[in-house]
Design a protein that fits this description.
The protein is mostly helical. It has one domain. The chain is built from 11 helices and 4 strands. α7 packs parallel to α9 and α8 runs antiparallel to α9.
């Protein structure tokens, strides 16, 4: 019964041309990409084709490339002493990404996974913002992947063109080298793209929640009942919990594999016998850049959404303070129950806000803006209870209970960046 329900989800999401959203939010290139990276399991043969492509490009080609075409007897410029680390790192992240994508598609379907099924309940501002970011996802993937792929292509073509007589071949030398070169480039592009794609999907879903949080911040600019505010916040917290639960294994696995890969690169490049020139270690540096880039996308998205969610507490406290101060202007010292909107507006300047993010200037939850006071609508007790609730129930992305906030993620990214810069110094900078 469960398998039939999952299959029906696939057919609804993928069977009719991969329609992502019946409300008009769709992207042909994005749909084609989702199908290309094996999200189309609407039929048995498509599922088999997806898994076959994964095993060939994600596992088979890297194994053949390492054990058959390593060329250990070639000259110093054509030897690849770091190929094992490169192939293992890329394949490990590709396996994790593919398994996560397959599990999400099989369990949720595309529409539900991307929260498109509930997007009709959101405001026009949220829908339009999500539509723009959804259409921009393909461009981001190309921006992140194609430059590295271009460098990898140049290196592979040079490697086969200048070392054709030393590299093992079968049958016709030129045909054999051309086929193997194309397969290796396709494998590199497939493994890198599928990893970066999951990171971009995570960024896309986090961006939707950021839009919802910015829309939620508007409740403090108008007359709203506490029950309505609480209900909206609970819905946002639930969405963040769902995202955390779906992506926690991928984020943790990515952090472990990328860190392990960086440490292995560090250990093998600091050996006294290591010859760290750009011909031998250039591919290693390119692999590290791609892996750290994907991890940076995830960390930045987690940091932004956790910071945005926690800033709601500060905004609510500001709103509560302004309303409380305004209530003392009443002659009887009591907050009346009649719904009369105060015309007073209180400027609040808080210098403790971090201003290292460019988009903070347009943040609707920025508590340095003027806060209109509706003291006559909500009693002090209700406002105080709401602020206490927000302070003790901070929303954000968690991984197995650990909140991914700026403090921890800055430390993690600092370590990853230090390892990457060390590797680039040992390979590219020292050679030039």
């Amino acid at each position: 019964m469960e398998d039939e329900e999952q299959l029906s989800n696939y057919k609804a999401d993928m069977g009719d041309g991969l329609t992502l959203n019946r409300d008009g939010i769709e992207s042909k290139s994005f749909r084609s990409l989702l199908s290309w990276v094996c999200l189309d399991h609407s039929s048995l043969w498509k599922s088999g084709l997806s898994w076959s492509v994964f095993f060939v490009l994600g596992i088979g080609v890297p194994l053949v490339s390492h054990f058959v075409f390593l060329c250990s007897t070639c000259d110093s410029e054509h030897q690849r002493p770091y190929d094992a680390v490169v192939q293992l790192s890329l394949s490990s992240l590709a396996i994790v990404s593919f398994l996560c994508l397959s599990a999400w598609a099989r369990k949720f379907g595309v529409r539900r996974f991307l929260f498109l099924d509930k997007l009709s309940d959101e405001s026009d501002r949220v829908r339009e913002g999500y539509q723009r970011h959804l259409q921009r996802s393909m461009k981001l993937l190309c921006i992140f992947v194609l430059p590295c792929f271009a460098v990898e292509s140049v290196y592979r073509i040079w490697w086969y063109a200048t070392g054709a007589y030393e590299i093992p071949y079968y049958g016709n030398m030129f045909v054999s080298d051309a086929i193997i070169c194309i397969m290796q480039l396709a494998s590199w592009l497939y493994r890198t793209s599928i990893y970066i794609l999951v990171c971009i999907l995570y960024q896309l879903i986090c961006h939707l929640q950021i839009l919802k949080l910015e829309d939620f911040a508007q409740v403090f600019q108008q007359e709203t009942e506490v029950c309505s505010i609480l209900q909206q916040h609970l819905m946002i917290r639930r969405s963040l919990k769902v995202i955390s639960h779906r992506f926690r294994k991928f984020i943790l696995s990515s952090l472990i594999f990328v860190t392990a890969s960086q440490l292995m690169c560090l250990l093998i490049t600091i050996r006294s016998s290591a010859n760290n020139n750009i011909f031998e270690a250039g591919e290693l540096a390119l692999c590290s850049i791609s892996l750290v880039l994907g991890l940076f996308i995830c960390l930045r998205s987690s940091t932004k959404i956790s910071h945005k969610a926690q800033s709601i507490t500060s905004l609510a406290a500001t709103w509560h303070v302004c309303a409380t101060i305004n209530s003392f202007d009443e002659p009887d010292g009591e907050t009346p129950t009649t719904q009369i909107t105060s015309g007073q507006v209180y400027p609040v300047n808080i210098d403790c806000e971090l201003d290292d993010e460019e988009d903070d200037a347009d943040d609707d939850s920025d508590n340095s803006k003027l806060v209109p006071v509706f003291a006559h609508t909500i009693s002090f007790q209700k406002r105080h209870a709401l602020v206490m609730y927000l302070e003790n129930n901070r929303a954000g992305i968690t991984v197995f209970g650990f909140m991914l906030d700026r403090t921890g993620l800055h430390a993690v990214f600092g370590v990853e960046l230090a390892l990457l810069l060390w590797l680039l110094n040992k390979t590219i900078v020292s050679w030039t």
